[in-house]
Amino acid sequence: MKIETKCVQGGWTPHKGEPRQVPVYQSTTFKYDTSDEMGKLFDLEAEGYFYTRLQNPTNDAVAEKICQMEGGAAAMLTSSGQAANFFAIFNICEAGDHFIASSSIYGGTYNLFGVTMKKMGIECTFVDQTLSKEELSKYFKPNTKLVFGETITNPTVSVLDIEKFADLAHSHGVPLIVDNTFATPVNCQPFKFGADIVTHSTTKYMDGHAVGVGGCIVDSGNFDWMKYADKYPGLTTPDESYHGITYAERFGKGAYITKATAQLMRDLGSIQSPQNAFYLNIGLESLHLRMKKHCENALAVAKYLKENEKVAWVNYSDLEDDKDNKLCKKYLPNGSCGVLAFGIKGGREKSIKFMDSLKLATIVTHVADAKTCLLHPASHTHRQMTEEQLLEAGVAPDLIRLSVGIEDVNDIIADLQQAFDKI
Ligand SMILES: *Cc1c(COP(=O)(O)O)cnc(C)c1O
Known about the structure:
By secondary structure, this protein is α/β, with parallel strands linked by helices. The protein has helices spanning 3-9, 35-42, 57-70, 81-90, 107-119, 133-137, 162-171, 184-187, 233-236, 247-250, 255-268, 274-285, 287-306, 325-331, 347-357, 387-392, 409-421; strands spanning 74-78, 98-102, 123-127, 144-150, 176-179, 197-201, 215-219, 311-315, 339-344, 362-363, 373-375, 400-403.
C-alpha cells in the first residue's frame, strides 16, 4: 500500500460485523476464563490483553498504522512525545551509560536529556549536527549506547543528514534514534536512510487539530542487538522480572518494543488513553492531505517573508537558497513541513509588537496543527535556557517559529502584512 492508503486504512482490518472505524476500547481490564490463561499472559507466553497500562486494542491498532506508515517492525503509543523519547532511550540505557544527541533539538527534549536524565546517571553529549563524521566520532566513548537527532529540528527547522548519522552510529556499533515529528512519515521515512528507531510527538501533525497530547515509538527491527550483546544486556540477557526471558532471542524484530512495553510501561506507566488514540487515528486519516497543504502554504509564506524588507532572515529548507536545501531535496523531496523560522529587523521590541498585532495567527505553545500559530522561543519554550545554550542550540534570540496552517494562504499573508505595517 502507498502511504496515502496506509494513512486511511492501515492498522485496523475489521472482520464480518465488526465496526468499520477503530472502536474505543474504554476498558482497563479484559476477561479470561481460567486462572491458567491469565497466568500465561503474565509470563509473556500467550498474546492477549489483560490491563490497559500495558496494552489496549485501540492503541495497538493506531500504533500498527503508524508502524506501517514508517515501514517498521513494531510500534507502541505513549502518553506524550516526551515519554516516547524518554522510553526510546531508557529502554537501552541505564545509569553509567552515555549517548550523543544533536544540540539542535526541541527544548523539552534538550532538558530531558541534559537535566533530568543526567540526574538518573545517564550522560548526554550534545553535538553540532553539521560536523563531519570524523569530527563527530571523537565524541564516542566505550559506554556510548546510541545517537539521537530530529529529522527537522524544532524550532530551527534544520534538516538532519540521516545517512551521515546512521553511518556514524553503525560504525560505532550503536543504533540511531530519529524524532520524526515535524516531517511525519508522509514526508520522510527515516528507516529508508538507515535510522533504527523512530519517535514521534503525535501531538503535532499526526493529531493535527491540537486535541490530544501523545507519542509513538517505532522500531525498524533492523538493529542486531545480539551482535553487540555486551552493550545491551537488557535485551540480550534473561529478564528476571519475566522468568528469565531474553527479549532479543524470544521476540526477534519485536524485541525492543516488547521490552519497552513489558518493563517500562509496566513500571513507569505512560500509556496513551484509548480515547486519545481514537482522536489520533482520525487525524492520521487525513495526514497526507494536510501535509501537502501545510507545505504548499509554508513555501508561499516563506517566499513572501524572504521578499519582505522588514525581515532579516528566513529558514525554510524548501527554499532553493536555504542552507539545507540539498538535504531537503534528498530526505524531503515532497516538501519538509509547515513550520518555518524567521527573524525581524530591529530586535526584540519590533518582534513582540509584530506578534501582538497578528489576528489570524495566534501566539500559542503549540506547533504543527491546522491553525496558523507562532511562538518566540527565547521568550516562551526556551526561556529556561541561557543565552549561551540558546546559541548552542542554534536558536537566535530573534527567532520566530511560524507554524503555517491549512487556511487560505492569502488570508495568512494578509494577516502577516497588516502586522508588518504596524512596525
Ligand atoms: C513537541 C515535541 C516533542 C514533545 O512532545 P509532547 O507530545 O509535547 O510531549 C518532542 N519532539 C519534538 C520534535 C516536538 O516537536
